[in-house]
Amino acid sequence: MLERILNRGNGQGNGNTILLATDGSKPALTATKKAVELAKATGASLHVICVKEDVMSMPLERKGEMLAEEELLGIHTMGGEVAVEWAERNSVPATLKIYPGGPVVGAILDYAKMIRPNFIVLGHAGRSGWEKITLGSVAEGVMKHSPFPVVMTRGYDDAYISDIIEIALARLRPAEEPEEEIEAVPLEDLHINRKLGVALGTLMAFLVPYFGLGALNSLSVGTATTKILGDANVTVIWVLILFPIGWLTAITFHRMASKAEGEA
Amino acid sequence: MTSTITMIIVIGLIALSMGVAVFTRRSARTSSEFYVAGQNISWLQNALALTGDYLSAASFLGVAGAIAIFGIDKTWDGLGYFGGYIVLLTLLAVPLRKVGKYTTSEILTTRFEGSKSLRLGGMLGAVVISTFYVVPQIVGAGALLQLLLGWDYTFSVLVIGVLVIAYVTTGGMRATTYNQIIQGLVLWAAMFIIMILMLGTTFGFDPGEVLSQADKMIPPKLASGLLANDPSVPDFSTLTADQAIAFVSGKLTGQSTALTPGTFAPNWMNTMALAAGLVFGTAGLPHVLTRYYTVRRPKDARTSTIGVLLMIGSFYIMTLFVGLGAMYILYPDLMGYFLGGNSSIAQNMAVPLLAEHTGGEIMLGVAIGGAFCAILSTVAGLLITIGTTVSHDFYKEVINKKASDRREVAVAKLSIVAMGAMAVGISLGMADQNVSYLVTLAFGMAASIFFPVLFMSIWWRRYTREGALATMITGLIVSVVFVAAALSNVTNVLGLPVLVNPALYSLPAAIIAGVAVSLLTKDVGDVDNFMRKAHSKTD
């Protein structure tokens, strides 16, 4: 019976698949367990999608947000990897897809349309009040827009997820992104002096007329106040021209720096 | 002078900007379309956030306000604030983005590993500069409330202080970055509308007419000083603009007009000090520099900066005309405020007064609302930077290495409250200062404390640990001494005349100290790895 209900959806795509969306929080781990159970029961394979939220913020703001949600989410783990491991333990074939950024709901639906699953499983964190207004709910967003059936778990129960938590604890999401490896290139190949030359050279295109205006204003007020265009005197025109000069300098620098990097 | 309509517009504008910010933050999660936009427009988002951060009360009220009382000489402020981003772009932006994650001092501690003194110096510098930057914002906000509600200045400042601190510390520190984006747009648009209305109502849409009026006026700051004890001065509130200008010009023949340079910075030393402080200051402002860590790809650091340059450049061009136009339209008012002892209004309120003059209560609301947006976004950015610096550089690295995130955020919030309280205290004594002038002093300090040490760390391989420390300390001491002297009206220190900006002394002093000490010492730090990190290929 369960099988019939779950398979009747729009799953005319790539065969018998279930899509799990997870962020590695406790509500998501609940959904992960449920998804694997359902996949096992229906003989489906599992696709796991993990979307890294793409929010522009300062580190302190990120930490603040994380802490504000701690009670709700319980734990920050690498949800995708945890789900794949849990699936493997239960002999369910699983594929992991990680999106590096973008609107979370949109990315989930985008992937869903590609693989056409029988249904989507995800956890509802149960945000309320201010949190809900400012962050909205991914689960509700997917429910609202998904052309596929959606199975939603709500909140979490520590007893239910006690086994999967063990895997999850071994795969905690680091608070900071890991440092990128730096290649041990010889310093000469970095062309530091040449880059500095490009930087200072283009900068002069702005600084010379900039300090030139200062010199003119303080050393020759007579010239500075000579009218050259209607009532606009030399100083006024000079000021007005400095802004476009600055724009051109910046754009030129960007081009030259990109080119220099290309050659380096 | 205030009305219900004005109040509704002010509150509405602030609420709207925050509402849109919340919506934007939310849609980053819940939008159902998967546009890769998040990635492609991140430089634009960042450019706008930087603009919102950067265009402060000083830019919105101070620059045009200062032009309205000093004339063309004060376009230096706008030009310098603008040019600073070019220095930042060419010399620091990309390496800055590549090294470090939290604070500017990380550039120093990555190269000179484990240097507690550099970390502490960095923190101290950031706190001093940012305090000097927060104070003018609060002074501006206090003057605005004074004008808007008729409150006492002290009371206004206290209210603003409490509001701003609450704004930053509550709400889980969420989405202030998005507020900055929206507020950047609001500010730009408000200035644009004020300019168009001003040109339309008074100058027949002819910017040339603004200049031709400006050429006939003696700047109010100069004129009021010269006429202060003159018994023949009439009651300016009974005069029209043309009558007031004619009276003053007749009385003070041969004085500089609004288009004559030199009214504010009277000789080459002052002019160069101001120009140098401003153009090298941006590249040393902690809250501007840390925002580069929010750009995803190093390359975006450059494109974002170009976006900022377009936004603020056009903004400052507008302030030139708005300032000169305001001088004409408000001439009797400004003279009246100066001579009547209300210089705090005359110093900073030309933009809102002009808005009211040309667009009535609605435009007054737009101008004040815009200014509040400027103040909120800038102060939020500054306080968050201070919070990060104190909690990361000082608490986490020096006091308690094992501090939890929760602890770190709590310390950040505490330092934000402390810093805010301190800034409010200082603001109470600064009512009569032009906010743009105060900000230029913060720029001068930033140009001396951070810019040289960052510049040399990034580009000079022979720079040493001791050299870096010498640069910072020299910059800090010399700039603070000369700023203190300028604010307390001391005219010379050790035989050197005190100028409008400390940078002419403190920037070269910092560089010379750094070079000299580096040549005498040997510890160049982890220079090879640092250089690889800072200058490797960008993708």
Q: Can you describe this structure?
A:
The complex is a heterodimer of chains A (264) and B (539). Chain A has 264 residues and is an alpha/beta fold. Chain A has helices at residues 2-7, 26-42, 59-68, 70-73, 79-89, 104-115, 129-135, 138-145, 162-170, 192-219, 221-224, 234-263; strands at 17-21, 45-51, 94-99, 119-124, 150-154, 227-229, 232-233. Chain A has 2 domains: 2-170, HUPs (Rossmann fold); 187-263, no CATH class. Helix content of chain A is 55%, strand content 13%. In chain A, the strands form 2 sheets. A 5-stranded parallel beta sheet of chain A has the order 3-2-1-4-5, sandwiched between helices. A two-stranded antiparallel sheet of chain A has the order 6-7. Chain A is elongated, with a radius of gyration of 29 Å. Chain A starts with a helix and ends with a helix. Chain B is mostly helical and 539 residues long. Chain B has a domain at 4-82 and 125-272 and 307-435: Sodium/glucose cotransporter. Chain B has helices at residues 4-30, 37-40, 42-54, 57-70, 75-98, 105-111, 116-149, 153-169, 176-202, 207-214, 220-226, 241-251, 268-281, 286-291, 298-329, 331-339, 343-348, 350-399, 405-428, 435-449, 451-459, 465-487, 503-520, 527-535; strands at 492-493, 496-497. A two-stranded antiparallel ribbon of chain B has the order 1-2. The longest helix of chain B is centred in the C-terminal third of the chain and has 50 residues, at 350-399. Chain B is globular and about 70 Å long.
